[in-house]
Design brief:
Cyt_P450_CS; monooxygenase; mainly alpha; globular; single chain; Cyt_P450_sf; heme binding; binds protoporphyrin IX containing FE; metal-binding
Length: about 350
């Protein structure tokens, strides 16, 4: 149901990202001119929140226009306008609902016991529903009207069923906003790495200026062409994968191959196996002796053919298999093959 949403047509809506990026850079410049530092993660989070909500709902929450927070030592940090702005209320509710959900997963199956008297997530959701419900109601009635006239876009029986069931649609839409934190963290870490590696920053700047120049907006083809940019993004995702830990459960008993020459491992059905992509991405036996260094060239020079090409599953920032990230093409351009299908 979700995959058509991530077609090449949709993910190349660079105009949306360009507009919000310009807004973010302008706010950054203004605040620096005032003599205050800027919290980059907060700034990027506002940029991704506005871009993601406009991409998904055709209307953004305008979190950039709520203004950037001032550092704690500034008298302006106490200003009330920030905390009462609808976008900040939305973001705060979103963060708190996510934190409560993370808490549930730590309790495993026993989590309902911790919420015997109330559903702690629903309690936090009302500012989110206040934003989404009117947009969704309008979209559903528009779709029903065009269907009655026989002009409805045929998206398949599943989508039609979902449209009848507005609540389930909301759940899907909120699920896509997963792309907000992953993208925010990846951009923040990329900026952090560029700040700490001025040589990489200057080479990346040269590539962008030579391929795009100072004024034009990059196209999908430009993105494919900027090999160093892709290497910088990949190297950031290697050292700081936005989903650093994950878990899978076996639905039937299975044997896992062990290290070469070792005995295979028996994994019974219904066993949870947690694993860490963060640790795997830093293993010297998989990536070489310099695994903990930030060096985008490892995705371009001999090291690529020595380590990654023969063993592609050592790099899993977007996971792999049927549940691979649906946003990876738009999110980071790791595989920019035409019409690339996720590995199954
Ligand atoms: C740097 C950016 C991103 C990273 C590192 C990332 C990473 C991931 C990972 C590791 C998963 C798999 C989770 C699992 O297997 O349990 C995933 C799933 C997913 N991602 Fe992303 N993601 C990014 C950006 C995005 C964006 C921008 C969107 C959408 C706008 C998005 C939408 C999704 C969706 C819908 C799934 C669930 C797919 C499914 O379960 O079938 N992601 N992402």
């Amino acid at each position: 149901m979700t995959r058509p949403f991530f077609s090449k047509d949709r993910i190349t809506h660079f105009e949306i990202f360009e507009r919000h990026a310009q807004d973010a850079i302008q706010q950054l410049k203004t605040r620096l001119k005032e003599g205050y530092p800027v919290d980059i993660q907060d700034l990027v989070s506002r940029f991704t929140m506005d871009s993601a909500t406009e991409f998904l709902f055709a209307q953004d929450v305008q979190s950039l226009s709520a203004g950037l927070p001032y550092p704690h030592y500034s008298p302006l940090s106490q200003s009330l306008t920030g905390s009462t702005h609808p976008a900040n209320i939305f973001s705060k509710a979103f963060d708190e609902a996510q934190r409560t959900l993370a808490f549930r997963s730590r309790w495993g199956k026993a989590w309902p016991l911790t919420e015997f008297w109330e559903d702690k997530v629903q309690k936090k959701m009302s500012p989110i529903y206040d934003f989404i419900n009117p947009i969704l109601a309008e979209a559903v009635s528009r779709k029903k009207a065009t269907q009655q006239q026989g002009q409805g876009e045929k998206l398949g029986a599943n989508v039609d069923r979902e449209v009848q069931d507005g609540e389930s649609l909301i759940d899907h839409l909120i699920n896509y906003t997963d792309g907000r934190d992953t993208t925010t963290n990846s951009i923040s870490y990329a900026i952090y790495m560029l700040a700490r590696h001025p040589g990489v920053l200057s080479r990346l700047r040269d590539e962008i200026l030579s391929k795009i120049g100072s004024f034009r907006r990059p196209s999908y083809d430009d993105m494919k062409d900027m090999k160093y940019l892709r290497a910088v993004i990949n190297e950031t995702l290697r050292l700081y994968p936005a989903v650093p830990f994950n878990v899978r459960t076996t639905n039937k008993p299975t044997l896992w191959p062990s290290k070469i020459g070792g005995k295979p491992l028996y994994i019974p059905a219904n066993s949870k196996t947690p694993y860490s992509v963060f640790l795997m991405h830093r293993r010297t036996d998989l990536w070489g002796p310099d695994a903990s260094e930030f060096d985008p060239d490892r995705f371009l020079d001999d090291r690529l053919h020595k380590y990654l090409t023969p063993n592609p599953f050592i790099f899993l920032p977007f996971n792999a298999g049927p549940r691979i990230c649906l946003g990876q093409q738009g999110g980071c351009w790791v595989t920019m093959e035409e019409d690339a299908e996720p590995a199954m």
